[in-house]
Structure formats: structure tokens, C-alpha cells
Amino acid sequence: MPVGVTTLSLDTISCPVFMEVQNKAIAAALHEHTLCRSVSGSADQPTVTERASALDPNTTAWLDLTLRWIHLIAGAAWIGTSFYFNWINHHIRPPEIPREGVSGELWSVHGGAFYRVEKFGVAPKQLPKTLHWFKWEAYLTWITGIALLILIYYVGADLYLVDPSVSDIGSGTAITIGVGALVGAWIIYDLLCKSPLSARPIPFAVVVFVLATAVAFGLTRVFGSRGAYIHMGAMLGTLMAVNVFMVIIPGQRAMVDAMMKGLEPDAREGRAGALRSLHNNYMTLPVLFIMTSSHYPMAYGHAANWAILAALALIGAITRHYFNLKGKGRESPWILPGAAVAMIALAFVSRPSVAPSASTASSAEHVSIEVVQAIIQEKCAVCHSANPSHPAAAAAPPDVIMDTREQIGALAERINAVAVLSATMPLGNVTGLTQEERDVLGRWIRDGANIGAGR
Ligand code: HEC
């Protein structure tokens, strides 16, 4: 229940009552802004005991590390096996010496040993004692991914999911929308797969792409930019994992069961599985980008972040298509250079405008370091300080400390990237940095980020 999650979320431990102990002034400033909107004034304000039961930042950070590590390992294993089997399918050739039932053969050398893989055209007459399945890679990737989603974006919904400058929804509503998007996406996708459309690859791909882009657009209107991106990743990852769980593995199980009973396996099961495998194949590269996307504020923090995501997904899918065609012996020499040109074009069209925005028309006047320092002190240093007062500060990078003007000056470029060119900081805009303040920071940086006294 979202309500239950809210009472455990970071916003409760960062509410003014708690923070009073640490810094009354900052707590008051934060309270004026949006930090405590989901708890302040409500009758069910959590008690001190409830607050104490919230995860402390160090525990959260280590849980994050552990889950993310497993997520990456399982994901690498999943994608690795899937790429490997694709590769086998593309390179296997009819055996040199024909053998009964064997439609393809492939020799390889790896790690000092020779391997021969045989592919059966139809099911083998007899099943071996041990038959290996590939499913736990997928399940574990999904389980750890969802756990991370909950840990970071749902428990920390106020920071990572909700952004009051995007929409004024509470954490509970945001989480409901997030979960709804994942479940809804599966229902619609599954219906599309069972419809006649699925037999026509190009119209199917167009419909799925348009729908996914519409969802991405919608999510960027209700969530903070990172929350929107990660939900698109979680959504595609969910489709892929549920494809394995609900269609591919049950289909294979039915085939094996039929064979055990000496019956002919139902070819429809095989076809349905193959279709979903193919979809998974095209989703891999876009999902891999989204998994790492939180490193790229120029993408997720861009005003047209949904369109950038759509473009990158297209570039990823078409790149995958190149390898699929190549596997079938069809060379398409223009695809990879086309993808490279598209990347360059995307970087170009999405570049930040250097022209000062309209609100900085009076940009002739210099911005002094005092003004900058005052803004940073109030809006950033609650987290980015040697003595931070905000619970989320434990997750902030230790090299981003902005207590002195020298530190601020040295960080000018990075401040520019996250608070001027994009609006990804402050996290969830909890301290309510205004557009005017961003413009002031931007002007100071464009003027050379001078930290000299008296300027
Ligand atoms: C609520 C706490 C909080 C506030 C307020 C905050 N930050 Fe951050 N900041 C973080 C956390 C946590 C990270 C760690 C990485 C992440 O989640 O992106 C971070 C990361 C950063 C980074 C490193 C990102 C990178 O990839 O280089 C910069 C730069 C930064 N913040 C600048 C700012 C500036 C400038 C402000 C004020 C306008 C600000 N932050 C306000 C919590 C905060």
C-alpha cells in the first residue's frame, strides 16, 4: 500500500520535527518548500517510533550497492546467454556429416577447449537426463531491479520520483501511477501479442513504439525526470521478464511434457515463445541504456527527455536489427553508420542553448560570488556540505561539497550540468530552487565562475 510506504519514506525522516535537532533554520526553509508536503498538516503524522524505523542512509546505501551488484551480474548473465543463443542460431550450419534429426552444427573454441553444438530440427527422440533451462538470470534481474526501484524510487519517492516543478502529486499517487504503468504495459502488450497485429512485424513495431513513446511522454509529465526514465526501463524490463515467465518458459515446459508423453509438441507454443524472444531481443539495447541513464543528465534532464529516450531506443533497436539481419546473411551496410550519424545528430539537436534565456535579459550585470554562495548555501548545501543536514546527503557524492567559494568555483562545470543546463538538482527540487536562481547560477558560470572577492 502506498500509504504504508509513505510512512517509511525519506520524507518522514526529513520532516522538520526531526530536523529541528539538527538545524532549525534549514528545517524551516525546507518546510516552506515542498519537502514535507506529504506529511505536514496531516492527522496521521508519523510518531517518533515510526520515524526511527525508517532505514538509515547507510543501510540504504549498502542495500542499494548489494542489489545493484546482483542486478548487474544477473542482467549480464541474462543478456549474455540471450546474445549467445542468438549468435548460435545465426551461425549454425547443416552438419558436414548428416545425422538423424540434427539440422545444424557449430564448432567453437573457447578457454582452451573445443565445443560442438548440435541443433535439432524437431525435438530429439529422447530427452537427456539433464536438460538446462535459462530462466533464473531473467527472474533474478527482474526481482533485484524491482527491489531497487522500491528502495530508491518508492521509499525515496519524495526525492527521486516526485518533482513539484513537474506536477504536484504526492508520493502515494506517484507510486500508484508507477506500479500501474508497469502492470498496464504488460496487459496491453500481451493483448497486442495475441492479436492478429503480432503477425505483421513492422506495423506491430510501429504501434508498440508509438505507445511506449506516449507513455514516456506521459510519465515525464507526472514524475521527476529520473523517475520517468527509470520507469520506462522497469517497464521494458518487466515485459521482457514476464515474457520469459508467462510465455517462453511455460511454452517450453509444455513441449517437454508432450515429448515425455510421447506426443508431438504443439508448434504454436514454440511460435509464441519465438515471437516473445524476438521482442526481448529488440528491447535489450534500449533497456541497457536506461539502466545507466542516471549518469546522463543531458538526456534525462532535457526538456524533451521523452523524445531523446525515444530516439535512443530507436537507435538501439535498429542496431540490434543490423546484427539480426547479418545473422541471416543479409548485409545492410548503411545501418551502423546511420546509427552513428543519428547519435551525432541527437547530440547536436539536444545541445543546450548558449543564448541566455529571456528572463536573463538584464544579464549585463555581474553576478557576485556572494549571491551564488547564498543560493548554494540554502538550496544545495543541506546535502552537499561537510556537515549536511539532510538525510539524503549520505547518498550524495563525497566530492561534491559546496561549503566554500573555492569548492563552489571548482565545481562550476558540474553545477552547470545539473542545475542550469538541466534541472536534475536539487534532487526532487526539495529545496525549491527557482528558475531565476538557475539563471543567476548560469550567468555566473558563463561569466567565468569568478570567485574573487568584491566582484
Ligand atoms: C536532497 C539532497 C540534495 C540537494 C538539496 C542537492 N543535491 Fe546534488 N546530489 C544529491 C545526491 C544524493 C547526489 C548523488 C547522485 C544522484 O543521485 O544523482 C547528488 C549529486 C550531485 C552532483 C553530482 C552529479 C554528477 O553526476 O556530477 C552534483 C554536481 C550536484 N549534486 C549538484 C547539486 C547542486 C548544484 C545543488 C543545488 C542547486 C544540489 N546538488 C542539491 C543530493 C542533493
Separation of the first and last Cα atoms: 53 Å
| Assembly state of the chains shown | single chain
Physical arrangement of strands within the biggest beta sheet = 1-2
Structural class: mainly alpha
Number of helices: 19
Rg of Cα set: 26 Å
Number of domains: 4
Associated small molecules:
heme C
The backbone outline, from C-alpha atoms, is elongated
- Uncertain segments of ≥5 residues (pLDDT<50)? 1-53, 357-361
Report the helical percentage.
55-70%
- Kindly state the number of beta strands: 2
Describe this protein's structure.
- This protein is mainly alpha-helical.
- The protein folds into four domains: 2-54, no CATH class; 92-122, no CATH class; 136-349, no CATH class; 358-446, no CATH class.
- Helices cover 61% and strands 4% of the residues.
- It has helices at residues 2-8, 10-13, 16-20, 24-32, 48-52, 57-91, 136-154, 157-160, 171-194, 201-222, 225-260, 267-292, 297-300, 305-327, 335-349, 369-379, 405-410, 412-420, 435-446; strands at residues 102-110, 113-120.
- Strand 1 and strand 2 (113-120) form a beta hairpin.
- The radius of gyration is 26 Å and the shape is elongated.
- Residues 1-53 and 357-361 have low confidence and may be disordered.
- Residues 159, 379-380, 382-384, 390, 392-393, 395-397, 400, 414-415, 418-419, 425-427, 430-431, 433 line the site of heme C.
